[in-house]
Specification:
The chain is α/β, with parallel strands linked by helices. It is 31% helix and 29% strand. It is built from six helices and nine strands. It has a seven-stranded mixed beta sheet. Strands 6-7 form a two-stranded antiparallel sheet. The radius of gyration is 16 Å and the shape is globular.
């Protein structure tokens, strides 16, 4: 509940350009999805994607089987408003990712927003379990987090920094690492944030 209250407040009080993670054109995310998607009709989930511009970019490019999950209803409302009446195919789910349960099996799982906010070991393990249960065999987990040289907090909350090795420690029980690389994000205010990305394939 505290997590939900925090993010509802953020999206009620801050505009898009007021938050450090804003990307009007999420180039790295788009490139990775297009690289690992076997086709545009596949099932894809964006975790923490309530106010991400990635959803609209992918939809406009022909990816229609999208599920957007976010703990903040306000964030999801903002994203829906970008689509108008053309988002009938999109599934919008308001819930904490740790409580997410579905019979669907996704071919692409994308998260640039949620994972590094988990700082409790049990929650981190739970996230890996939820992802493993929700991703089809041979499907891909595309994930980003602040790197070991990145910020130690975000939006007033502590985060967990990651490296390729730390990612593997969390996910290697269920996934095989395909690639990992560092990336530099420039915030709307001009600050630099170091990220690490990883792509895993479901066993």
């Amino acid at each position: 509940m505290k997590r939900k209250q925090h993010w509802e407040k953020v999206y009620k009080t801050k505009s898009d350009n007021d938050v450090g993670w804003f990307q009007e054109i999420p180039q790295t995310s788009i490139r990775l999805v297009e690289t690992y998607a076997s086709g545009k009709d596949l099932l894809m989930i964006e975790v923490g994607g309530g106010n991400s511009f990635l959803t609209k970019r992918l939809y406009d490019d022909g990816f229609y089987n999208l599920t957007i999950i976010d703990v903040s209803g306000k964030a999801l409302e903002r994203c829906r408003n970008r689509f108008g009446d053309v988002c009938r195919d999109i599934q919008w789910i308001e819930t904490d990712i740790l409580d997410f349960n579905t019979d669907a099996l996704f071919q692409i799982w994308h998260d640039r927003a949620v994972f590094h906010f988990l700082i409790d070991d049990d929650e981190i393990r739970k996230y890996a379990e939820v992802a493993a249960k929700s991703i089809a065999a041979g499907g891909y987990l595309i994930i980003a987090a602040f790197s070991l040289t990145g910020p130690k907090s975000c939006s007033g909350l502590p985060i967990t920094q990651y490296s390729e090795e730390k990612f593997c420690n969390v996910f290697s029980k269920y996934f095989k690492l395909v690639e990992s690389f560092d990336d530099l994000h420039i915030t709307p205010s001009g600050n630099q944030q170091n990220f690490v990305w990883a792509v895993f394939k479901r066993n």
